[in-house]
């Protein structure tokens, strides 16, 4: 627990066309709002306005009309639905194919038809999934999961007319304190060690549905309006978001049980419920007793053990605590608590509730710091994924959890729900969704203090357009945090949001191009060690997504020197130049890099030009400089063609091309040429002005310059001090007249 925190295409085409009329009017439901027009006493948003946000007005009544005939997803194909648009954090509309996804058992939904939940698949962005809820009591709340940062849409004003669309960032400030504990519940697996290790992905094409008994204290009920409808609407909002994450990462969903109103304690007397609101440990047992209670006839008083699969209680205090591997287990399956002073919004829903329920389904803490109490401490510092302690235990990676589970958390929970304690009580629904197949590539050995890039791939029998990739380190040993380059164990690299790119630069390419091999939470090792990595691929399907994963190992050679690239001072455009790099031990075993590629950029790595490919890894190669305009931002990148490491030069200048031009200078002679660094120049001057001699090396640097008075016959010996063998350019000026010749020093 944590501190609260062609046929198919035609069918789809018809669907989009059929609902095009709806698409014509969809923007009537929302518009951009002016923050200056909002009255402060009407603002109820629960935290400081996020840096990346937009205010919007939503006409909930109009939206309800558009949603009136949306098909239920369990009765519809995944290509059926209504096309609607919703704004992102910049206020830009994005389109989704929307279906209703009720979070309640049918009997409860019939009692509260106005409290509704929906899911939509991104049309503009196939990786996007929108989850939103709507009710008279709580208005509209939404969440968009995608290949970028999650977008949240929350009520901003008490009249439920103005909303805020935002993403979280570290500039938004820290979150409230929260304490999380876990209670160990052994899980029995009828598996060999190899089979257990293989149980790591939601890949069997089944959507698992668990019945959730969700209780609350009086304090929670009063916070949310003190009526069954208002409390249930708040619970619906939270669980819609929680389900969004569990469905995408684990193919798991939850529905609130039919008689759930029996455990919504309204008060107003805070002593009228069976819970100790401020004590998570006390509520852990109290919730189990309450949900399982029977009368003298053996009938359920509130819920009944046979009527739910997982239980949880919401409160306004006591932090979080949960029993590991407990769903489906009699006497333990209700042992889950989430309490926070302000039990509302994205932090409560994702950082705290999803975290605690993650424990119940078998996920341990992932942080690797002083708060680490787990054997899967695979994330540096406080961690940043759901099962970490983001923002509540120093050193903090960031203030809020990112709304996805680490690949190791998925492995733990999947083992439990597919083969362990929690594999015996769910209702399974075939999704016909084939899981993606991930390929993390081969294992490699690299030199110390050298950047590298992890390159993966994946295939999907259904579609590959919506795949996202997430590379994560999986080393668990406790280590100094923030990570140091000298750490010979533990994690060095944080987890980053799933991306449409199958590659990850370690550290970010921009960091390396700026001259560094580390950020605070992504550090290249300067010592020999082994690093284990896993690639998790998500297909981001609605109604039961699937994942695939694969592992690889990067060994850092103990007795090695860094692979580096030498930096030119400047190069003339369109000239022939020599690139040089320090090979070190990279051309021998165990690294065995025999060839390299040479790339060039002038825009900070946005684009690269290949100057040479597959050249021998000997430390030098001759290339032709691109014929470009003057720049001081040129960078050379040399990468292993048969490995994963690379290095870059510092920035340097590209100057105008040096040309060899013939002018009419009488009787010009230059001899000997080639020479040993000393040669004669003779000609008959005509300008009557001074004479200048200049010599440039091939990089464009002046290595000799001298002025002479005018004479009738010019004869001088030029000696180049310490000149290396190579090609040089000689400029002879007779006043404003110039001739350029090549000089070869051998």
TrEMBL record:
- List the InterPro entries hit by this protein, alphabetically: Secre_tail
Where is each Secretion system C-terminal sorting domain found?
Answer: 670-745
Write the signal peptide boundaries. Answer: 1-23
Pfam entry (one): Por_Secre_tail
> Which keywords are on file for this protein?
Signal
- Note the superkingdom of the native organism: Bacteria
> Which NCBIfam families would you find in this protein's record?
Por_Secre_tail
The protein in question is named: T9SS type A sorting domain-containing protein
Organism whose genome encodes this protein: Winogradskyella luteola
């Amino acid at each position: 627990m944590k501190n609260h925190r062609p046929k198919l295409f035609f069918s789809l085409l018809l669907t989009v066309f059929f609902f095009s009329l709806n698409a014509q009017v969809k923007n009537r439901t929302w518009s951009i709002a002016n923050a200056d027009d909002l009255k402060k006493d009407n603002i109820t948003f629960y935290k400081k306005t996020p840096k990346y946000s937009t205010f919007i007005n939503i006409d909930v009544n109009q939206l309800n009309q558009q949603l009136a005939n949306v098909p239920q997803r369990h009765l519809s194909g995944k290509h059926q639905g209504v096309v609607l648009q919703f704004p992102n954090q910049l206020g830009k509309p994005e389109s989704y194919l929307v279906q209703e996804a009720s979070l309640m058992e049918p009997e409860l939904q019939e009692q509260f038809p106005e409290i509704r939940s929906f899911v939509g698949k991104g049309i503009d962005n196939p990786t996007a999934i929108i989850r939103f809820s709507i009710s008279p009591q709580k208005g509209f709340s939404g969440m968009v999961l995608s290949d970028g940062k999650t977008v949240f849409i929350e009520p901003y004003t008490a009249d439920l007319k103005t909303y805020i669309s935002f993403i979280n960032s570290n500039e938004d400030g820290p979150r409230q304190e929260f304490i999380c504990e876990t209670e160990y519940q052994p899980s029995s697996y009828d598996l060999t060690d190899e089979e257990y290790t293989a149980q790591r992905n939601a890949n069997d094409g089944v959507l698992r549905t668990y019945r959730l008994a969700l209780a609350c204290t009086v304090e929670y009920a009063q916070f949310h309006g003190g009526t069954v409808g208002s409390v249930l609407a708040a619970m619906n909002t939270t669980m819609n978001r929680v389900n969004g994450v569990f469905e995408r990462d684990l193919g798991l969903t939850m529905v609130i049980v039919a008689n759930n109103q029996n455990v919504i304690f309204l008060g107003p007397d805070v002593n009228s419920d069976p819970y100790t609101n401020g004590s998570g440990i006390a509520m852990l047992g109290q919730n189990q007793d309450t949900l399982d209670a029977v009368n003298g006839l053996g009938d359920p008083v509130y819920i009944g053990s046979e009527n739910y699969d997982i239980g949880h209680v919401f409160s306004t205090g006591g932090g979080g605590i949960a029993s590991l591997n407990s769903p489906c287990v009699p006497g333990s399956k209700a042992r889950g608590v989430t309490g926070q002073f302000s039990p509302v919004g994205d932090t409560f829903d994702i950082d705290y509730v999803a975290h605690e329920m993650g424990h119940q389904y078998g996920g341990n803490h992932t942080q690797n710091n002083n708060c680490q109490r787990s054997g899967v401490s695979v994330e540096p510092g406080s961690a940043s994924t759901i099962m970490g302690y983001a923002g509540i235990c120093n050193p903090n990676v960031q203030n809020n959890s990112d709304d996805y589970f680490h690949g190791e958390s998925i492995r733990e929970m999947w083992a439990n729900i597919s083969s362990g304690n929690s594999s015996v009580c769910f209702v399974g629904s075939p999704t016909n969704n084939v899981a993606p197949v991930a390929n993390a590539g081969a294992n490699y050995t690299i030199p110390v203090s050298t950047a590298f890039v992890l390159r993966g791939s994946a295939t999907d029998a259904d579609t590959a357009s919506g795949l996202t990739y997430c590379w994560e380190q999986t080393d668990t040993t406790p280590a100094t945090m923030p990570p140091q380059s000298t750490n010979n164990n533990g994690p060095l690299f944080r987890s980053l949001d799933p991306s449409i790119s199958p590659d990850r630069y370690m550290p970010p390419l921009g960091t390396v191009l700026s001259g560094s091999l580390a950020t605070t939470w992504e550090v290249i090792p300067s010592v020999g060690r082994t690093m284990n990595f896993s690639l998790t691929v998500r297909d981001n399907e609605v109604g039961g997504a699937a994942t695939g994963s694969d592992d690889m190992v990067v060994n850092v050679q103990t007795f090695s020197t860094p692979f580096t690239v030498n930096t030119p001072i400047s190069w003339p455009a369109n000239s022939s130049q020599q690139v040089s790099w320090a090979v070190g031990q990279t051309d021998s075993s165990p690294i065995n890099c025999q060839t390299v590629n040479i790339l060039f950029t002038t825009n900070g790595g946005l684009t690269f030009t290949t100057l040479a490919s597959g050249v021998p890894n000997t430390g030098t190669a001759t290339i032709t400089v691109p014929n470009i305009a003057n720049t001081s931002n040129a960078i050379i990148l040399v990468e292993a063609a048969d490995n994963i490491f690379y290095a870059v030069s510092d920035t340097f200048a590209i100057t105008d091309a040096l040309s060899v031009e013939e002018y009419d200078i009488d009787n010009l002679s230059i001899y000997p040429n080639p020479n040993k660094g000393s040669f004669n120049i003779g000609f008959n001057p005509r300008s009557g002005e001074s004479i200048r001699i200049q010599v440039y090396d091939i990089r464009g640097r002046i290595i000799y310059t001298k002025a002479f008075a005018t004479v009738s016959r010019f004869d001088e010996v030029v000696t180049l001090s310490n000149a290396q063998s190579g090609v040089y350019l000689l400029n002879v000026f007779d006043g404003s007249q110039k001739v350029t010749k090549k000089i070869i020093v051998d």
